[in-house]
Design brief:
The chain is an alpha+beta fold. Helix content is 22%, strand content 37%. This is Glycosyl transferase.
């Protein structure tokens, strides 16, 4: 009699411990928060000592994403991305009027683009205690443990983005999502693409200003809507 009760107790104990183990196991592997549907972020970006400030306007419901990039004491550049795969890279006056159009076979990043990222543990960065993930050797992503806001990310090539503001729900008005008219002049002349359309002063200007958005679009396809 006593041994039967003991056996049942032992069974329950084992089931309980198993339950505890599974629950704990699940709790101990954090996943990154999805990006909000719409937000505005100011990023400080350092690529090999070249510094820039980027205004990132992520707008998933409208299928668009904007990087407005101020190079330190330099050119202000615009990187306007549409979910149909078209990106406009341009500069406005008082800088030279330049525009470069690129077509990608992916749209903008999905809010859940970090799904499947590999958890690396916790680390203190920029004075925040962060959970850290790595996505396919492409990006290392740091998220504040307390608020679950992104703090920083590092691309495989060493470019570092520090997240200075993160305004969830902020939306840039429609009128600002308009590439200048000279982008469309160029578009009519498909053949001129290699000469006229690429009127950026130098390769340096292009890579310095636009690399963040371009890098993002090089992310493996599972991160995108298409
Ligand atoms: C743990 O996670 C797995 C996979 O996500 C799930 O199937 C399982 O139900 C979870 N277990 C508990 C106890 O939450
Ligand atoms: C930028 O990154 C370089 C390394 O690539 C580093 O030496 C430098 O201190 C950084 N500058 C700032 C302002 O963080
Ligand atoms: C994608 O959408 C933008 C904005 O509506 C438009 O300017 C562009 O021409 C479109 N690209 C293609 C390939 O349809
Ligand atoms: C388009 O191509 C034609 C013929 O080559 C040329 O005359 C015209 O100036 C070009 N337009 C633009 C906007 O580049």
């Amino acid at each position: 009699m006593a041994s039967a009760t003991e056996a049942i107790n032992a069974l329950f104990l084992i089931l309980f411990l198993q339950h505890l183990l599974f629950t704990t196991a699940n709790d101990s592997i954090p996943v990154p928060a999805d990006w909000p549907q719409q937000f505005h972020s100011v990023l400080f970006i350092n690529r090999s000592g070249n510094l820039r400030k980027t205004d990132l306007w992520y707008d998933w419901p409208n299928g668009r994403n904007f990087n407005i990039v101020q190079n330190q004491l330099g050119v202000l550049t615009y990187d306007l991305e549409w979910d149909n795969g078209t990106s406009f890279y341009y500069t406005l006056q008082p800088f030279d009027k330049t525009c470069k159009i690129m077509h990608f076979d992916v749209g903008i990043l999905r809010p859940s683009w970090l799904d499947g990222a590999n958890y690396l543990g916790q680390e203190s960065v920029d004075n925040f205690l962060c959970n850290v993930w790595e996505k396919v050797d492409f990006i290392t992503y740091y998220e504040d443990v307390l608020t679950r806001r992104p703090v920083k990310w590092i691309f495989f090539d060493g470019m570092v983005s520090h997240v200075m503001t993160f305004e969830v729900g902020a939306v840039l008005e429609d009128e600002h999502w308009q590439a200048p008219v000279y982008c469309f002049d160029e578009m009519k002349n498909e053949t001129s693409e290699k000469t006229n359309a690429f009127v950026l002063e130098s390769e340096d200007a292009a890579s310095a200003g636009f690399s963040h958005g371009m890098l993002m679009r090089e992310m493996p396809h599972s991160a995108y809507a298409k």
